[in-house]
Amino acid sequence: MASDDAVRATNDDAAQCKRFAVEKGYWQDPFITLLTQRSQNKHAPEISRGYYARVMAMRTLLQKFIKMTDGNCQVVNLGAGFDTTYWLFKSNGIKAKSFVEMDFPTVTSKKCFFIRKGEALLNAIASDEEDIQISKSEIHGQDYHLVSANLRDIKEVERKLHDCHLDKSLPTVFIAECVLVYIDSDKTKVLLNWITENFTSALFLNYEQVNMQDKFGEVMIENLKQRDCSLPGVSACASLQAQKIRFTDTGWEAADGMEMTNIYKSLPHADVHRVEKLEFMDERELLDQLFSHYCIVWAWKDPNNIGLGSIDLT
Amino acid sequence: MLCATSEQDASTQLRIIESCTKNDRVKINSKKNEILLINKKSKELNLELFNEKISEKQTIKHLGIERQDRNTPNVVNRISTARATMYSLMGAGLHGINGVNPLISYKLWRTFVIPRMLYEGAAMKMKMADGSTAVLRRNRPGTKAEMWSKWSDIAYEEMDNTLAVQQYIQQAINKDVNDVEGILNQPDGVDEGVWKYEHLRQFCMELNGLSVKLQAECNPETCTQMTATEQWIFLCAAHKTPKECPAIDYTRHTLDGAACLLNSNKYFPSRVSIKESSVAKLGSVCRRVYRIFSHAYFHHRTLFDEYENETNLCKRFTIFVTKYNLMSKENLIVPILDDQELIEGESEA
Ligand SMILES: C[S@@+](CC[C@H](N)C(=O)[O-])C[C@H]1O[C@@H](n2cnc3c(N)ncnc32)[C@H](O)[C@@H]1O
Ligand SMILES: [Zn+2]
Ligand SMILES: [Zn+2]
């Protein structure tokens, strides 16, 4: 059983790393500074480049989905932490009917606090039609919802999504970035099953560890254990195959995926080229190791053939 | 009205007006402008607006008040305005014996006579938009308080001006405020959009009454935020960035905003037919103003009950929004109807 506090702390880590990379110029995100304080920590270029690849690839997939549905869709980010995609997309005119972010209350209450303070964040949520409604740890706007729930508790997840007035017949994408690995595999199964049983058309984008059975994986698990953070979901991260099977076993029509090594190669070359000049990296070995231990897997359920199966990174 | 301390100052301000009016594409009739020199010896001024010289005067009428070059109020003139206002209201029952309830007299005096005396209140001439019906609709001398505005009823078909629906609704309310179903009963021939629109206007007007009552005990120190149940705060949308206004400010700002929207030429250019695209706005106004009821109910219960006993306003509103699907049931958290309590526990809007 992972200590939940240690798991929540992984979000601060992720947000700090993103802010650091943004300030180095890896990608643009005027909103991340409104959600995190600057930290003293420096991060290795490998880390920033890893985040760069992940952020670019996840955004590309999400954007393809929103385009395909012409915005008549919903986005549910599970374990969203301090993710800023809603604001970034909205400021670029990319909109979905609803954007839901879900995390532990300790995380959402911090986010709530920052949103209340951050005019730019509030302004994006404001709409003519609907007043913004705020509690200690939750926010409801016209197209933005921040809710607290424990993803291991499917009843709570269901109740909180109901509060967001989601339309279960609308194409909906579920996102998990480095989240499921912290959750017991059985509980994840329940969650994945619940989605396919309740939503007509759905896409899942999952970014997390892969090939965790080698030496590198062992070291990573050991490191996290020392921070009191175990990975009860790591069994699904044994291989790309194992990652896909967890979806096809829970009612998803099909799944596909790539290791980050290949994803990095598929990113727009000009931008990758620009990024590679930002910071000096004396050897690529560590970066290659990192990339081969993370992957993105996407799974879909598309009975109405709206084309979810054709979404990929090429 | 422009005030300036020097000729140069005045000239600068006039240039600002010229550029603003150009930007906003409004036209100003230069000929209708006049200058009044206050407490200064008259001297030749050379001020122009759109290349027309502005003429100098000894007295100027602004918003109906005469201002003189000594800037002393024309007391005689104003008292006579006040008296005239008073007389014109007598026809409506504003007099001692046999007149309306003294409390109402006082309110009329305060709302109509005093402002006209102090600053004319040009917009408050006691005339209705349609002169002919105004005669019909006036209260007769000696009307008792409880008879105030209980005019003889006219059927909807007989009202042919643009304010017909509004008058029809007000007539029904005046007849029996407890007959909620009757008040909401849509007469044949009335467009549903117009019917909903006019009722909502009426609700907003009457909600001002509740908001005035609320002021007595709902203040920014005690109700620092707009809440109904403890959990949720509602941000006030009347600002550039949504703001955590105190409940009483939220109430005022929201009612002002609603009035503004309902009177806007953009969304509601006509009161005879309502644009399909604007009907959606009505639901959003409903959800906003409903929070005034729910705040009053959960935080000022005695006051709410008193007001509700008199007016049945929340009950009428609840039935109205349900009947026309303007709000979802789970947002209706004030248990005002008999069959409504069931949902109280689980709702949170
Ligand atoms: C490594 S962070 C990633 C945050 C974010 N997805 C990102 O990519 O920046 C993992 C997040 O998952 C959340 N999380 C983990 N287990 C959870 C659970 N059982 N219920 C809700 N949130 C959970 C944590 O609170 C944390 O915010
Ligand atoms: Zn109050
Ligand atoms: Zn306000």
UniProtKB/TrEMBL annotation, chain A:
GO terms for molecular function: protein C-terminal leucine carboxyl O-methyltransferase activity. Its EC number is 2.1.1.233. InterPro entries: LCMT1, Ppm1/Ppm2/Tcmp, SAM-dependent_MTases_sf. The keyword Lipid metabolism does not apply. S-adenosyl-L-methionine binds at residues 54, 79, 150-151, 177. Signal peptide: none annotated. It catalyses: [phosphatase 2A protein]-C-terminal L-leucine + S-adenosyl-L-methionine = [phosphatase 2A protein]-C-terminal L-leucine methyl ester + S-adenosyl-L-homocysteine. GO terms for biological process: methylation; regulation of signal transduction. It is an enzyme of class 2 (transferase). Keywords: Methyltransferase, S-adenosyl-L-methionine, Transferase. One of its GO terms (cellular component) is cytosol. Methylates the carboxyl group of the C-terminal leucine residue of protein phosphatase 2A catalytic subunits to form alpha-leucine ester residues. Belongs to the methyltransferase superfamily. LCMT family. This is Leucine carboxyl methyltransferase 1. It comes from Mytilus galloprovincialis (Mediterranean mussel). The lineage of its organism: Eukaryota, Metazoa, Spiralia, Lophotrochozoa, Mollusca.
Automatic annotation (TrEMBL), chain B:
InterPro entries: MOB_kinase_act_fam, MOB_kinase_act_sf. Transmembrane segments: none annotated. Keywords: Kinase, Metal-binding, Transferase, Zinc. It comes from Mytilus edulis. Gene3D superfamilies: MOB kinase activator. Zn(2+) binds at residues 218, 223, 295, 300. One of its GO terms (molecular function) is kinase activity. PANTHER family: MPS ONE BINDER KINASE ACTIVATOR-LIKE MOB. It comes from the Eukaryota. This is MOB-like protein phocein,MOB kinase activator-like 4.
